[in-house]
Amino acid sequence: MRLKMSNNKKYRCVNCGEPCSALYKTYGPTVLKLTKCISCKGIVDKYIEYDPVIVMIDLVLMSREAQRHILYNTEFKAFWKLFIILMMLETYAVWRSDCLFSITVNTLCDVGNNYTINATSIDIPISISLPETWRHNCKGWLQDSRADETDLFIWEKDFYVQFISTFSGIVIFISTVHILMKSIQLFATKREVSCELLLKAFSLGNMSVVFLLPALVWSSPGPARAGLAHYALVFLYTLVVFYNVFTVVYERAAAVTVSVMVVSHCTKYLTTFLATPLLRGLVP
User: Fold this and answer.
1) CA-closest candidate to residue 248, choices 40, 53, 13, 82
2) SS3 43
3) What share of residues in the chain are helix, strand, coil (percent, to 5)?
4) Residue 138's closest CA among 149, 146, 130?
5) Is residue 32 within a helix (H) or strand (E), and if so which, with residue range?
6) Where are the alpha helices (DSSP H) in 110-151?
7) pLDDT digit string, tens, across residues 23-56
């Protein structure tokens, strides 16, 4: 990723987030001096001299310094491509029931027992049932036509429906985060966050979906509990990554950011759960 070095753009210190006017100064064709932050007295962006592989490793390790480097001090023009690829991967995981969200819905709806569909679910000792107003959504969560593995058109159509449903959930998630954070700004220091920066932050945080690939590629038939630990760890890792990213972007207190993350994820999964049966009913 290229560094942004235009004079009319602001950068940020990767250590404390303080705005700065330049990342380095040049004193000749081979002489370069990194700028020091006026607030924390540290190097504004140490990742300028780092190999991209080191930056990627720090991103995986949820380093806020690496996240600030990517969001504020680099171009990151391909974020929309990353956004689409990760959304398709997330859609495939939900469609294949290879994620914690799908397993939870299948379990609460008792899809396997009530509708005689081969769906991934777990047996829980406690009887939990959804409200009666949501019961009709359980029938449309998985289609009976999935049993017909020869009709590729039905499978393809079902994937596109799930893609739109997942996209709707993501839009609601991003909107909820931004609205709640902007509302909290009325009682705190103002911090302008552009739509582009918000989409970059989501794309960076959603990279944790990649860790679902081992389950999607090497999954084998067996008890659902065998892969449940993997899905749970990926989900927890996703929550922590989003917490770090939105803390970097909005700079709010930990309790506020955690609350917003919980509410936003609930609205996202609720939207996906309600939209999927609705869309399948509309598509012939």
Assistant:
1) 13
2) strand
3) 65, 5, 30
4) 130
5) strand 32-34
6) 111-114, 135-141
7) 888 877 777 788 888 888 889 999 988 898 999 9
